[in-house]
């Protein structure tokens, strides 16, 4: 394939080469990311896409329309983060995508999940680990570690972690007033075979750490509501009037420790596996 000088075409070529992995790739910075969103071919027009800040109770399947279920979904959304990585490690090799661009300053975007907070010597505060920190001059304190779980094809090693910005509460691309940020410091664990990575991050924003801690306490409160999870499971088992979607990849349901998640027809929401 001929080399492309147009940044959008180069990004399309790079996305094609990554195979089953899913990274948004930009050779033209943030501006090109907005163009990629508008030109999306996976779901043109983003039909049936519901931003989390627009989610309402009636969007849920009927068997899940409970306040606690709705609150749990909102809780999970608050722990989901946007990861912007501005460097491709020189140590990347196949089967990881972008190995052709190893050592280059290229913006890639993926997602992750805030999995925990790790205290250092029992404290939230620590000296800022960044030389010539762009956020605050001189010696100062940061807060963490915030542990982000993501895929190895998103963040591979320490070099990529140090060039990663973590955005929390990125719920509306047209309103960034609630967005809070952290920065990657290093990789705590990584498995290329399992496509798994745990990245340690810090933030200069004490309010972000407070919000994370509050969110984790909310999880503890929800986890005690066994009636919620028992009722969800029983509703799915007993509701035989709604046929399940059959698919060679997706089974009747995907089971997690706390939920049965089923894709159902004949409900008042669109099935994401149809079409």
Give a structural overview.
By secondary structure, the protein is of the alpha+beta class. Among the domains are: 64-129 and 140-222, Trypsin-like serine proteases (Thrombin, subunit H), CATH 2.40.10.10; 239-275, no CATH class. The protein has helices at residues 7-17, 29-38, 67-79, 158-161, 206-223, 226-238, and strands at residues 24-26, 80-85, 107-117, 125-127, 141-150, 164-168, 180-191, 196-203, 254-255, 260-261. The strands form 2 sheets. The protein has a 6-stranded antiparallel barrel with strand order 2-3-5-8-7-6. Helix 3 (67-79) packs antiparallel against helix 5 (206-223). The longest helix is centred in the last third of the chain and has 18 residues, at 206-223. It is globular.
